[in-house]
Amino acid sequence: MPDSSNHISSPNLLTDTFGRHISYLRLSVTDRCDLRCRYCMAENMTFLPKPDVLTLEELFDLSKAFIDRGVRRIRLTGGEPLVRKGILTLIKRLGDEVASGNLDEVTLTTNGTQLPQMADALYRAGIRRINVSLDTLDAKLFEEISRRDRLEQVLDGIKAAKAAGLKVKINTVALKGQNETEIPAILDWCLAEGLDLTLIETMPLGDIEGAREDSYLPLTALLPGLNTRWNLRPSTFKTGGPARYFAIEGSDNRLGLITPLTGNFCDGCNRVRVTCTGRIYMCLGQDDHVDLRAALRSDNPDQALEAALGKAMIQKPKGHDFAMKDNRMVGTVGRHMSATGG
Ligand code: SAM
Ligand code: SF4
Predict the structure, then answer these.
(1) pLDDT of 151-166, one tens digit each?
(2) Of 90, 163, 248, 264, which one has the fewest beta carbons inside 10 Å?
(3) Cα separation of 293 and 290, whole Å?
(4) Residue of the nearest CA to atom 13 in ligand 1?
(5) 79: Cβ below 6 Å to ligand 2?
(6) pLDDT confidence of residue 2
(7) Which pLDDT score, from 0 to 100, does residue 205 have?
(8) Residue 91: CB within 6 Å of ligand 1?
(9) Is the pTM value of this prediction over 0.70?
(10) Ligand 1: which atom is nearest the Cα of residue 132?
(11) Ligand 1 pocket, 106 CB below 6 A?
(12) pLDDT reading at 190 higher than 70
């Protein structure tokens, strides 16, 4: 007779102790990157040894465990997800989950450098929507912020993505004294290109050169200026993420704001993040985590994962503690964004 004691017949849906149902997974597929954005990484990063990183097979098995527990959307991120070798195989398998109705969507956040050669293949693998991070349209400033001269490559990548049929949204981190005065020009460009734009406040994640406060630009300070130039109306549009959206008069495109510091959005949190080593972080701004890799590599992965995910749900905190107090950023977390997956 088969031993049914280890059999998980119907995995539990993921619901935390505040009654929030988890339907969205951000999965980091690598901590490596071909850029070195100053607000995200140090120039000399020590990347993880390969054996610590989940294989593509393990990343898929883990995704499947989340899908079986009610996750409907998966966003791949990193580091730079498109520099992970063989990533298209994982995307294709997740695309097949979308095609068979098990998943609503598989998306990607990318810096865009690999899109010129990968956009068509991404579409074929089942991706329909991507976020491209772009903080400036000025080649010199791009190199200054990302420590690499790649603006042209990224712009070519965005062009290739549009041509391949991918819907592109631009993410821009608002940086005081850097792209601060360029933001209206970035919005102009997005509208001309037919792209939505989301502006993001910089968050205190990991050590960087210099003080984070020096480049922190509260979006509340930026909005009135944008509103005099464009007629912005708060919109009920939601993508399931933390952005608040504004409709722009005369355009079909939208402006989104992600304001972790000036406007906490944790009440409706529907997400968890998994690093490329299989740690699940229940909140970007807290250190609590559970090791899913040990569960995945154990003798009885089904049962171990069920237990680990149950533990994670109990530990999911109410929210992050990022804030500005007396001109200092507080609620700081030691991990870089590239480690957790932005
Ligand atoms: N490499 C990809 C990219 O840049 O789109 C994906 C990973 S990156 C960590 C994801 C997003 O996090 C990017 O939009 C980036 O600008 C943002 N990011 C990184 N560090 C951040 C920080 N400290 N505060 C706010 N956003 C940050
Ligand atoms: Fe790389 Fe993205 Fe971090 Fe920039 S923001 S260093 S592109 S992971």
Answers:
(1) 999 999 999 999 999 9
(2) 163
(3) 9
(4) 133
(5) yes
(6) 44
(7) 66
(8) no
(9) yes
(10) 5
(11) no
(12) yes
Q: What is the pLDDT of residues 1-27, one digit of tens each?
A: 444 444 455 678 888 888 888 999 999
Has residue 323 got a pLDDT over 80?
Answer: no
pLDDT score of 37 more than 50: yes
Residue 78 Cβ inside 6 Å of ligand 2? The answer reads yes
Residue nearest to atom 20 of ligand 1 (CA): 40
User: Nearest residue CA, atom 4 of ligand 1?
Assistant: 111
Q: Which residues contact 112 (CB under 8 A, 6 or more apart)?
A: 132, 133, 134, 153, 154, 157, 158, 161
Amino acid in position 253: N
Whether the Cβ atoms of residue 262 and residue 39 lie closer than 8 Å to each other:
no
Domains in the chain: boundaries: 24-340
Q: Which ligand has the minimum distance to the alpha carbon of residue 135?
A: 1
Q: Which residues pair with 247 in a beta bridge?
A: 233, 254
Q: Which of 26, 29, 41, 208 is the pocket-test mutation for ligand 2 (most atoms within 8 Å of CB)? A: 41
Locus of tokens 């502006």:
199
Topology (CATH) of 24-340: TIM Barrel (3.20.20)
